[in-house]
Specification:
Length: 176
């Protein structure tokens, strides 16, 4: 089934088309949710809420840009909504309180699997994790992050730098 037929089938309530869309994209989107949320249960909730939004908004998709990219934005926004609803992100952690090193040999990352790196990202403080995911993985600009999160652009930039330093420190300690 091609993309247009899949979308039309889902809009029309065709259960086979809906199952195909779910089976095709839910594993990718669950991995995405796991990067943002602090637990598997929260990731499952975010995925479910995001998929409900996708199915309810399918008629709004205009065919401009990637369909998967359109759905991905909905899933990311759903994760961000849940994070804002469930917890107060700490964007004001003074860097003086942290002992981070900004330098690290690049070869350390080569020794890590993608899953190990994702596990380290999941251990980041919530404010760091969200900004890191949005900037480094999802490709949002700091300006977009600031608008979506209701923070200043400079806060986004500093949180990203702190997140990187935090991640580098954790990885270097593992490989020491």
């Amino acid at each position: 089934m091609d993309e247009k037929a899949l979308i039309l089938g889902c809009i029309e309530g065709n259960s086979k088309a809906q199952k195909l869309l779910f089976d095709t994209f839910s594993p990718k989107f669950f991995s995405l949710c796991l990067r943002y949320m602090k637990s598997r249960d929260e990731a499952e909730d975010a995925l479910q809420d995001g998929l409900v939004k996708i199915f309810s908004k399918l008629s709004e998709y205009k065919g401009k840009g990637s369909f998967e990219g359109w759905m991905r934005r909905i899933i990311v926004n759903t994760c961000l909504d849940q994070i804002r609803k469930n917890q107060k992100l700490k964007f004001d952690t003074p860097i003086d309180n942290e002992e981070y090193k900004l330098s690290m040999n690049a070869f350390i990352l080569e020794k890590m699997s993608a899953n190990e790196l994702i596990e380290e990202i999941k251990k980041m403080p919530p404010g760091y994790r969200v900004i890191f995911n949005m900037f480094a993985i999802e490709g949002y600009s700091h300006q977009e992050i600031a608008e979506k999160m209701g923070i200043k652009e400079g806060t986004s930039k500093s949180q990203y730098l702190r997140a990187r330093a935090y991640l580098k420190e954790r990885i270097s300690k593992q490989n020491a």
